[in-house]
Amino acid sequence: MMINSSLLLSITTFAYMVCALFYLAGVIFRYRPLLLSGSLLGLAAFLLQTVAILLRWQESYQLGYGHAPLSNLYESLVFGAWAIMLIYLIFEYRTGQRALGVFPSICAFLAMAYASFSPSVDARIQPLVPALKSNWLIAHVIACFLGYAAFAVAAGVSVLYLVRKSVKTNPHPKGIIALFPDPKQLDEFNYQLILFGFLWLSLGIITGSVWANSAWGNYWSWDPKETWSLITWLIYAAMLHARSVQGWRGTRVAWLSLVGFACVLFTYFGVNFLLSGLHSYATQ
Amino acid sequence: MPLKPGLLQSLQQTLASMKLSIFVFLTLAVCSLLGTLLPQGLTEHELHSRFSPGMARLIELLGLHDLYHTGWFRFLLLLLATNLIVCTLQRLPKTVSQLKHRDESIEPEKLTKFIQHQVFDVNATLDQLKPRLQQVVAAEFAAIQPVENSEVFAGVVETGRWSRWMVYLVHLSVLLILIGALIGSLAGFKGFMNIAEGSASQEVHLYRGNQTITLPFAVRCDDFDVTFYDMGAPKEYRSDLTIIDGGKDVLQGSIIVNDPLTYNGVTLYQSSYGAILKEAEVEFTDKESGTAQRMVLPFGEAKTIPGTADRVQIVDYQQDMAQFGPALGIALQREGEPPKGSWILVKMPQFHGNKIDNYHINVIQTVDGYYTGLQVKKDPGVWVVYTGFIAMMLGIGMTFYSSHRKLWIWAGPAGSGSRRTRIVLAGRSNKNPVAFEKDFQRLCERLQTDLQPTGERD
Fold first, then answer.
1. Which ipTM was obtained for this model?
2. Is the distance from CB of B287 to CB of B391 less than 8 angstroms?
3. What is the value of pTM for the model shown?
4. Based on the domain organization, do A16 and A108 belong to the same domain?
5. Which domains does chain B have, with CATH numbers?
6. Are B447 and B434 in contact (CB under 8 A)?
């Protein structure tokens, strides 16, 4: 059988599903080796996906188009899954908290599954339309997706925070909750991830803006996608200010983080399907 | 009557409050959201045909069909800027005095009140351990700046003092972006011009206000070309342009999407294109005499049919006339008569309407040309905005990933006449307390092991 990027991406999709199941089972049965298996499989799938993305890049050259695989809905979903796993694996390595992998691995699997199985998502390598032929494409997409990915992991941490917080008394030492870090630590993780995401989101908006100015002569045109990314930015900006100056902590910050992530999802999916604008090529 | 000082003060306090900032952030978010749900840039006519009369009136009253340019939306942006400036002015002096503050003396009792503090005794005299203490602290954080104090050793260590300024850099960047946008809207313009291949134009139709302005130079489109991929998707739009200033060709360049041309602060972007008729070969058959004349008619240029005094001209062109394919609008001008005209279908020579007066008209062939659609922009504020962008990235990066850390160190005899030395350490960081706690603990552990006299360490 020919090894090509679509085969590797199919394997990746399957591997992320098994990885999510490992994490989930590890949490439910409170069995740490399962969590470790999840991490290792996640890492392996991530590396495989990296190879697949590079291979797809090369394949586009063979087809005579020659562009980075970041140009349409399929490629952005694949890259989104890759970015989530990248951010999460680094996060897991630095904090040593394996139990937080459930949410990111499910997200990565869902993104890959949607990209692979939805009939409305075209997986073929297509040529670039003239508007996308710019070096800003790579910078813009990478910056935005690293931001989105960090917000996704932060949303997962926030959900855990809210669950953890709802258990009032000291958790049973053998309960599921005991696997998770204490609320104060979760709050700090949430904050650090959002800081990271905010930095990249800002860079994503700025590179998009500079690009738009060089392509259309408009660094800001209130296009729905632009506007929604600004809405997302404003919400996280409000959260960062509330936390650092007003001293907001915990529950309220977790909810704002979830609202912010809902905006991220709308910026990505909602705008593509419900509103039209400059980014309409992202729906094909 | 002057405002009551209380009122002025409370206004200032409101403008400086973080609650207002958060309120403005979220209000801007909600209003921007509204603008993405309602179609923007509708004409009055479209507005009334899409919405009920009451709804349309409400939308017009609030300007919801052009939300981002309404007065109240700009007021929100102004409020954000004001809030930012007042906040900055109020906090800046605090930051300055905080950074200027020099500890005149360090008292061990006060240090133990810090969240991060440690006290431990070392079996050595102060003179013996002092060089090592300085060395370790310098390696882990930075050099100790001694604070004058008799008999004992005391000092402070500071890193990342500049990090306190970074938040102001971010705020400045937001102001720069807003100012740049203001400069652009006051001193710039945005519009479009359509230029047929081979012709030149100076007129720019502005997007806003339905106006036309005349550029101080002319733009000629020498050639336009569009290429396609095998599958039919467009690959590249390219216009070869020449700038004519003072009657001379001063600049030539070809532009593609993402690669514009700038002359005298005015930038030309490839934005659209369209097909136009360049010329057509047309046959005029006089039904009465039966004579046929073939002529090449350039678009818009009147010519006389040989052997007659009748002048004909292609005045209009449609690529698809009511689904009958391309059609030429031809006008016939006779001495002493009002001009007559008709649509002539190119692909249907037998069509009964292909005639004007006594002529049956047959289009032999058409030669297409293109016009290029250019977006024309002048925005002197764009560099201010870009400076703001750079400042914002630097500022956000450094605000979040640096912290101002300060350590206080006191070392003195553990008791009167004791040969043992007591060391008291305290520390504080303005950001990332978790990471700071780790680093502080590591320093303390290293000091405790390193400062013990060699004999006592195994």
1. 0.88
2. no
3. 0.82
4. yes
5. 5-98 (no CATH), 102-160+403-456 (3.30.310), 276-368 (no CATH)
6. no
